[in-house]
Write a structure and sequence with these properties.
The complex is a heterotrimer of chains A (about 160), B (about 300) and C (about 375).
Chain A lengths: L4 H7 L8 H8 L2 E6 L4 E3 L7 E7 L2 E7 L3 E8 L4 E2 L13 E4 L3 E7 H10 L1 H26 L10
Antiparallel strand pairs in A: 1-8, 2-7, 3-6, 3-8, 4-5, 4-7
Helix pairs in contact in A: 1-2, 3-4
Chain B lengths: L13 H9 L8 E12 L2 E8 L12 E6 L3 E11 L3 E7 L3 H7 L6 E8 L12 E7 L4 H11 L9 E8 L8 H9 L3 E6 L27 E6 L2 H13 L7 E4 L15 E2 L2 E2 L6 E3 L4 H7 L3
Parallel strand pairs in B: 7-8, 7-10, 8-9, 10-11
Antiparallel strand pairs in B: 1-2, 1-6, 2-5, 3-4, 3-6, 4-5, 11-14, 12-13
Chain C lengths: L5 E5 H13 L3 E8 L2 E6 L10 E6 L2 E6 L16 H4 L3 E10 L2 E5 L8 E6 L1 H14 L6 H7 L2 E5 L10 H4 L11 E8 L2 E8 L2 H6 L6 E2 L2 H15 L11 H7 L5 H8 L5 H5 L6 E7 L4 E8 L9 E2 L2 E2 L4 H20 L9 H4 L7 H10 L13
Parallel strand pairs in C: 2-8, 8-9, 9-10
Antiparallel strand pairs in C: 1-11, 1-12, 2-3, 4-5, 6-7, 6-14, 10-11, 13-14, 15-16
Helix pairs in contact in C: 8-11, 9-11
The chains are: A alpha+beta (about 160), B alpha/beta (about 300), C alpha+beta (about 375).
């Protein structure tokens, strides 16, 4: 039997261990979506309105430069989270995200999620803790990459 | 030169066209200039000071560019980074291709060709007595150098009332125009420089240039921003300015595309409805530009 | 003879006209048949013109067939356009002698005698007037301006082809714009003759040595019939209302993906288009220190066309096809104040896979409601 949206949410690492009714709360804002390889999930400059929970396939986070074309900043794998710009105004995407494989996501409407977090502070705090942990880990990884450790000259 | 207008029958323009044929070929032929000095700003960035051997080209306004010919190699669009007495012009060149590499390795005494000036300018004259904020990334400071020098002066002599200059460079040894930075600070300009990576002896900020926006004081509603650098940096900087309350119409950016003729004839520098040699390189961030930056090349 | 007046000449009169042009020192160029197509070549008399030739054109297809009739102008344009005469595919912009520490620049003069272009189709003249706004301005190309100052004798159109749509673009089948003379070939019970409309004093002067008679009502009716026949037999139509805005709003329309799968990026369309003006420069050097700058036609379909340090800006076929079509029909207005398209249909005929610009426009218009477009930045 196919999983319900609430089950898909509860099974995703971001929401692992959440009580059942909380998963239902999130599922109320969510739907199951698929993307073809090459499709853009996120476009730089567009309104940021979705939290994506990756279930299947990989996604590349990219920036477009005129002569170099698309430069890949990061790749995300199943079990990871895509999209944080919906958290704070001006709610606008800063990068592109492109499906590298056939991608399956649980797509959570951000306006819905934010309003539920505002209405239920306990849920809101739990959500922020979990997202915060993801963002911290990503930031530390990015800082290490900035050092360009494999290059010839690190500083100066 | 007179125009062959569509309303005029072709044969009526014959006599005039014959006369034009005897004149100089026009905007497509360079004037010979001598390299008077070549100063290395960094390992791959050189400022050439050129002096006219024959007729000088017109003085460039801050933001405009000339087409420089390395004879036998080719021609490239290079922003004017300074002007001096005697019709001397400064061009700061980064060695990224055949022509720019040839220009960077020109020795004093050698001859280059100059055509120009072309393009739109920063509009620095209108900013006298007003507030200005400059964001420059890497060699993006070169097209801004003349404008900043003018704005750093006293408001009575055309300078800004309040000037903030934010500069981003890759590493401390890739910061250009160190003397100018000192001079601007001495004139009271708030100059902040950040790098992407540095050793402990740097002592200054490390991080993206937009991060500096939170460390300086400026009035978003009254400030005109001038932004130049890699296009990705321009996009992020403009957005950061808009997020802090600077209206998109008050953000001026300098764009770059393949430029060959400089006069709107060759078609290479098109960016949607704009011919950047004629309608740019300085354009307003507002309006169509944000769409163009993101969409047009996908 | 006053401007706007019309006279009639017969076949002999046409020959007198052509030899009169030669006597006056013009290089006479006109349509000739070459390698199975209508091309631009030297014309010494009316015998050099495509008598009895008729074309059949469709997307990706061109066929020229010979019949026994005496019509000189019963065909639509082939792949060559007059652009090649006013804007040569290769030219030397300047030449310089470079020795130690000195450079001596030499002007390159164009000494070719002025051309008299005979048999210019109305769409061709319209194309020249489009190019005038690009290359004929005060900061424009001196070579173009000099070449453009030749004589123009239009041949109005009676037999459009399967890819023609000049009526949609307002460029034909009647002669519009600035011409010296305009011919309308009339082939009916009155015999083969040409109604000649005088467009300039120079044109009137050339007719001085030609046997003419004043045009009468039957001649004017015959001309009207020719033009009406052309009007009602156009191969294609292009809806132009709000076309620039339509394309500007639909830069992400899925149709661009569709056409990109068919387009070979071969650039044929840009080669045959009478208004495409992109050029590229290359500097060459010889052992004796002579440096030359060469200018030659280039195409936005070339990968190198948009090259900046690092790579091409438009690397996908999709972005390059979109650049060409949106420039031709939309951003040309922003840049030069007119459409870039004159409805000659060459790009449709000479596309190896038969892409039809009119069909692409219809598809984008039809799907506009469902297409995605990015909003401008909200400040």
């Amino acid at each position: 039997m196919p999983e319900s949206i609430a089950e898909l949410v509860a099974n995703h690492p971001l929401f692992a261990g959440l009580p059942g009714d909380t998963a239902e709360l999130v599922a109320g804002c969510a739907r199951n979506v698929a993307f073809e390889p090459g499709e853009l999930l996120i476009v730089e400059g567009e309104p940021a309105d979705t939290l994506y929970l990756l279930r299947r396939g990989r996604v590349a986070l990219e920036v477009r430069s005129p002569a170099k074309g698309a430069m890949v900043i990061d790749t995300l794998a199943p079990g990871q989270v895509l999209g944080w710009s919906w958290l704070f105004p001006p709610y606008r995407w800063s990068f592109d995200a492109r499906a590298l494989d056939p991608v399956g996501v649980v797509s959570v409407d951000a306006t819905c999620l934010r309003s539920k977090a505002e209405a239920d502070p306990a849920f809101g705090y739990e959500l922020m803790k979990r997202l915060g942990a993801v963002i911290l880990q990503r930031l530390q990884a990015t800082r290490l990459r900035l050092l360009d450790l494999y290059g010839n000259d690190v500083a100066g | 030169m007179a125009m062959t207008s569509p309303a005029e029958a072709p044969s009526q323009a014959l006599a005039r066209a014959e006369l034009e044929a005897q004149l100089h070929y026009g905007p497509l032929v360079p004037e010979p200039y001598r390299v008077a000095a070549a100063r290395h700003e960094t390992e791959d960035v050189v400022t050439l000071t050129l002096e006219p051997l024959d007729a000088p080209v017109a003085d460039a306004l801050p933001g405009q560019f000339n087409m420089l010919t390395a004879f036998g190699v080719g021609e490239a669009a290079i922003s004017v980074s300074g002007t001096e007495d005697g019709g001397r012009i400064d061009h700061t060149v980064r060695a990224v291709g055949q022509v720019s590499r040839a220009l960077c390795s020109s020795r004093p005494g050698s001859v280059v060709g100059v055509r120009g000036p072309f393009g739109t300018h920063w509009g620095v004259d209108e900013l006298a007595g007003k507030d200005a904020l400059v964001i420059a990334g890497g060699i993006g400071l070169a097209p801004l150098r003349m404008g900043v020098s003018q704005l750093a002066a006293d408001p009575a002599s055309g300078g800004a009332r309040h000037l903030v200059v934010l500069i981003g460079a890759r590493t401390p040894n890739q910061i250009v125009f160190a003397e100018d930075l000192r001079r601007w600070r001495d004139l009271g300009t708030d100059v902040e420089v950040t790098v992407d990576a540095a050793g402990p002896e740097w002592g200054g900020p490390v991080g993206v240039v937009t991060g500096l926006l939170d460390t300086v004081a400026f009035d978003p509603a009254g400030t005109v921003a001038l932004v130049c650098g890699p296009e990705v940096m321009i996009r992020f900087s403009a957005r950061a300015l808009v997020d802090r309350g600077v209206s998109p119409e008050r953000i001026r950016i300098s764009l770059e595309r393949n430029m060959q003729c400089g006069v709107g004839l060759c078609g290479h520098c098109q960016l949607g409805p704009l011919l950047l040699c004629r309608d740019g390189p300085v354009v307003d961030y507002a309006g169509a530009v944000p769409q163009l930056l993101v969409q047009h090349e996908r | 003879m006053p401007l706007g007046d019309a006279v009639v000449i017969d076949r002999d009169g046409l020959d007198q006209l052509i030899s009169g042009l030669t006597t006056r020192g013009y290089r006479v160029l006109g349509p000739v048949v070459r390698q199975g197509a209508i091309a631009l070549g030297e014309v010494n008399s009316s015998e050099d013109l495509p008598e009895g030739w008729h074309d059949t054109q469709a997307p990706g297809s061109y066929r020229l067939e010979h019949t026994d009739d005496s019509a000189l102008f019963a065909w639509a344009v082939g792949q060559h356009s007059i652009k090649a005469d006013v804007f040569p595919s290769r030219s030397v912009v300047w030449r310089a002698q470079v020795t130690d520490g000195t450079v001596r620049l030499e002007e390159t003069r164009d000494d070719a005698p002025s051309a008299a272009l005979v048999g210019v189709r109305p769409c061709e003249l319209a194309a020249l007037e489009v190019l005038d706004r690009v290359m004929g301005t005060s900061s424009g190309d001196p070579l173009y301006k000099r070449r453009r100052a030749g004589l123009v004798v239009v041949a109005e159109c009676g037999t459009p082809s399967g890819t023609c749509f000049c009526t949609s673009m307002g460029t034909g089948p009647a002669a519009t714009g600035a011409f010296d003379l305009a011919l309308t070939e009339l082939l009916d019970s009155g015999g083969q003759r040409f109604l000649v409309t005088i467009g300039s004093e120079q044109g009137a002067e050339v007719l001085a040595d030609v046997e003419t008679r004043v045009a009468d009502d039957t001649d004017f009716s015959a001309r009207a019939a020719v033009l009406e026949h052309a009007n009602s037999h156009m191969g294609r139509r292009l809806a132009t209302d709000d076309l620039p805005g339509l394309l500007a709003r639909n830069l992400e329309h899925p149709r661009w993906d569709d056409v990109a799968e068919r387009c070979l990026a071969c650039g044929n369309c840009t080669l045959v288009c009478p208004t495409c003006f992109c050029s590229t420069v290359e500097d060459t050097t010889t052992i004796d220190g002579t440096v030359e700058r060469h200018r030659s036609w280039s195409s936005c379909f070339d990968l190198g066309h948009s090259y900046m340090s690092g790579g091409p800006v438009r690397s996908s076929t999709r972005s390059r096809y979109r650049q060409w079509m949106t420039h031709k029909l939309s951003t040309w207005w922003d840049q030069f104040g007119s459409s870039g398209c004159v409805g000659c249909g060459r790009c449709i005929t000479w596309c190896p896979v038969g892409i039809d610009i009119t069909e692409e426009a219809v598809a984008i218009r039809a799907g506009e409601a469902g297409s995605k477009s990015v909003d401008a930045e909200r400040g």
